[in-house]
Amino acid sequence: MVGIFMLGSMLHWFSHSYKIEQKQAELREISYDVLGYLNFQDGKFEILDKEMESSAKKMVMDHNLDDVTQNHFAYVIDTEKSKIVWSASSLSKPSSEVGDDYYLRFNVDKNLKISFEPSFAQLKPLQPKDLNRLENDPLLKQTYNQEYLLSIQSFFDSTYGKFQFVIGASIADIEKEMQDMREKFAILLFLSTVLVLIAQLALSFWVVAPIKEFENEVKAIESGDKELISDHYPEELLPVKNALNGLLSYEKGQKQRYKDTLDDLAHSIKTPLTAMQHQLDQLNQAKHTPQIEAAVKVFEAQIERMREIVGHQLRRAMVTNQGAMILSQPIRPILFRLRETFHKVYRDKPFEIRINADEYAKCRMDAEDMTELLGNLMNNACRFCQNIVEVSAHQDNNMLVIDIDDDGLGFPVDNPAKLLQRGVREDSKSEGQGIGMAVSTEIVSAIGGKIELQVSPYVGARVRLHLPI
Fold it and tell me: Where does the record place the Histidine kinase domain (predicted)?
């Protein structure tokens, strides 16, 4: 809209200037033609030759200088007496019968320099002396209200004083064209305003629609109808989608980890509690001193209390709502720290740890969980490798893929996926691999990732991690 307004203003100004310049050139040419016929002698302007007078009349008619409506005119005025001494309409001094209001007068600067080159002015006529006649004649009123372009040439005679040759032409037609142009640009500006508003409304709807869908999906998650944000959204909303999905996956995994940890704790203390309860039951069957019976009752109360605490914590793990927004963490610093650590741990074993991950390799994961995950997997690789452990990372869509390779014995041929299952104890795992795999699987699953067991290019074991960015 601003561009259209500026373009219209510039085009209007250039068009107006161009038309005025054309009009000035036309008036300059007419002034030279008229002056070619005039002769100044004894204070008079006249045409001496009859043949030239006939040619001059034709020239006046060609240029409409005898126009009675005064749209075109040419005259010579005595600036000191303010009297018109020659008129193109009569090719001589005006008759005494012609009133002063017949010719249009203008407030022209009387001190213009003497020059054959005309000066130009754009003025309105001075009001006539007979104002009543002006009010009663609409055509005459229009004549006095329009602007004229004047070509003015000044002459000076030491005897008769200073004269000005004035040629005028109405520029009402130019003003009319400019008015038509302004109206067209006003219509164009109005239409462009309407179109821009429609486009902005459509664009706003197009931009806001995905946000409304995103909001509805978040509400569905809040109500429990969905677990993750699954619809496709514009690229600008993908970081928010990934962040929320990472948070939801982390919370879900964290709840499961709390529950699993407490399950393990309950399972671990179940046997000693059962043994203690068995001993107390045997003590209750026999008679004892009051002190021992009091002690037995205290032990029974405490055992029951321990069971209640375990049950309470298990129920709490099912409804816990702790969590935080997980930010993308670079893996390179953690890998270098772990490499130094494992070189010290396995200092008696000659092997090389290669890290092929740049500073842009990041994943959405807690730093402590990342250290635990990579530490477990690299520890397995360092423990069972022969000469090489290699960690590489690359991005695949919205996931960071990390490969941990070694040149050891590899995974067992018969069902290596069982190493990822929770509840497989160390004594039931295949020889050589699987230590820390269950913990690693829990961490990866908690953030919505994936872990795979493959064959390394070094004919050893490869653990491939798919972690959200």
Answer: 264-469
